[in-house]
Amino acid sequence: MEFELSATADNSRARAGIISTGHGKIETPIFMPVGTAGSVKGIHTRDLRDDIQAQVILGNTYHLYLRPGIDVIEKAGGLHKFNQWNKPILTDSGGYQVFSLGDIRKLSEEGAKFQSHIDGSYHMFTPEKVIDIQRSIGADIIMAFDECTPGDADYEYAKKSLELTQRWLHRCFNQLNNTEPKYGYNQSLFPIVQGNTYVDLRKLAVNHVKEFDADGYAIGGLSVGEPEQVMYEMTEVVTADLPLDKPRYLMGVGTPVNLLESIDRGIDMFDCVMPTRNGRNGMLFTSEGTINIRNKKWENDHSPVDENGTSFVDQYSKAYLRHLVISNEMLGAQIASQHNLAFYLWLVKKARQEIINGNFAAWKKEMIEKLNQRL
Amino acid sequence: MEFELSATADNSRARAGIISTGHGKIETPIFMPVGTAGSVKGIHTRDLRDDIQAQVILGNTYHLYLRPGIDVIEKAGGLHKFNQWNKPILTDSGGYQVFSLGDIRKLSEEGAKFQSHIDGSYHMFTPEKVIDIQRSIGADIIMAFDECTPGDADYEYAKKSLELTQRWLHRCFNQLNNTEPKYGYNQSLFPIVQGNTYVDLRKLAVNHVKEFDADGYAIGGLSVGEPEQVMYEMTEVVTADLPLDKPRYLMGVGTPVNLLESIDRGIDMFDCVMPTRNGRNGMLFTSEGTINIRNKKWENDHSPVDENGTSFVDQYSKAYLRHLVISNEMLGAQIASQHNLAFYLWLVKKARQEIINGNFAAWKKEMIEKLNQRL
What we know:
The structure is a homodimer of 375-residue chains. Chain A has 375 residues and is of the alpha/beta class. Chain A is built from 14 helices and 18 strands. In chain A, the strands form 5 sheets. A 5-stranded parallel sheet of chain A has the order 4-16-15-14-13. A 5-stranded parallel sheet of chain A has the order 5-6-7-11-12. The relative contact order of chain A is 0.13.
């Protein structure tokens, strides 16, 4: 994997770059649609590529491991073959999902024992096993196995947790170096910077991950309940010390405003379920602000879903989309999800252009004012 | 509306024709995807037109009347504008839906009083009101308001019900003739032949509807619980006496085999929720037989969903589709629905070609053998 820095903004850490992988290039900053179980909910692979113009999508190790299972994905020839997405894929390590299981998971030095949310069966994830699984899935970018602490963890817990994540990182890289890719192309392992909301822990964490000279670095444990300003502060602390010549990925973030604020702080990659999950509930993100399409005010608004939208679904009318969402018609969830993803991809593409054109700061200010509006 | 008979099969009542409407032509025999609440479940209008190649779709008066309501559809400029389907639309009269409500509807000479399945509110459908509603929806083909009897109704009930349907038909045509289309194109009213499973009632019903010299005729009250052979027998009885120069529509039917058997008996138009409803449950219809994609045998079958399929969704693998359906991923329901509709449209198109080529009987025999297989 290579990363080329194309441009940097003045008076900002915002950057435009290009990541090259075995499945093609990714222009950064980029948003990655989440394909939890190997499918971005409600979206055909063809539309993901041609209409939404996604450049890289996410898969979830935890979900894919439980269903369809690694054997099926291996026999397909990897996830790219299984879901027919021929562009780059990133898989998370399952650390966040296991953390989310709460009472039905137990951590030890060895790893995390957990029960399947599907059938209650017991499973064990270790750093080694998670690397092996990600070798079988075959994503271009794979993630280290980490512990993600809750937003309100106290210092002692956060410190002990970080140290565990650091020991696990060594084991992840050892396993990576002792194994080969299964499908003939390289896989890049990204360490995850943890440390909760404690500046000194975040700094310790950054210094530790830098030792591995990885192809890229992720920031985890944010957007898990802490105030937004704290998230931005932690992001700043981390990006200040990360190497400039490697991509930075802020995991699980966020709203369109979160994206712009984080790009400003030097983030290159994002993923979040928000565009699809909120879309299914009838919330639309647009360049003029957010729309709750269930609102009565749209009942007889026969104008397009988004006049400025880039997706073909934007040509349906607001009144029609409102009717579909209120009637629980599948097509409503499909249209709203596809619109939101196309908007997220437009937003990061536009940010990239503005960085290259030297106009990022002014554009961002204007854009955030509009994004904060409720239509 | 005009109907041109292009070809008839030898030793069969099968016909190939062309219906011309204010929204373009329909080549018969045709299958009409069901867009209950103004959307064919899980299918983008674009794919319905370009991928599935539907020529006409159905809307349900009962559902559209309750939600979004007639006011919204009128303000949109009719259903074609509302759901952006620029080809022909047919609406049923709501008779069948009201019949399905069971305990929460009550019939009288005046019409049917019923409670909304959404909020329990009371409503009254009369023949006049149903015509008015269909004027507002603006379908190219609209249906008479009738009573649909259950498959096991006794003779006396069936006879009384038929007489009510006949009196209502007069009122429907009176209302049609006393009102104007709202959107500048003609709307054709099809009477519905009832009579349950009683040959003499069906014959009475046909003779009655013929008096109206309508643009086309529908057969209702079949596929509601009676044996399949009885359905075919009733269809034969009715088509024997219907005028040759008008299209015949068998309502709510059916499986691919039902379609071929009914085409053979002189039917030109069909609608059914089966391709989408069964698709959502993982049942696929193909030219080689039916597939239950949930079956373990497809777990590692990485061949296309349907090698002979005409839709782009047929290029996903069986193993991937099985995974999506079992995981309740929306995309699974979307792929299966789209495949099934594309297959139904392929089947009637192929039947049409074979009728024109003079090979319908031989092709039908061979096809039915394959359709009856379980893969």
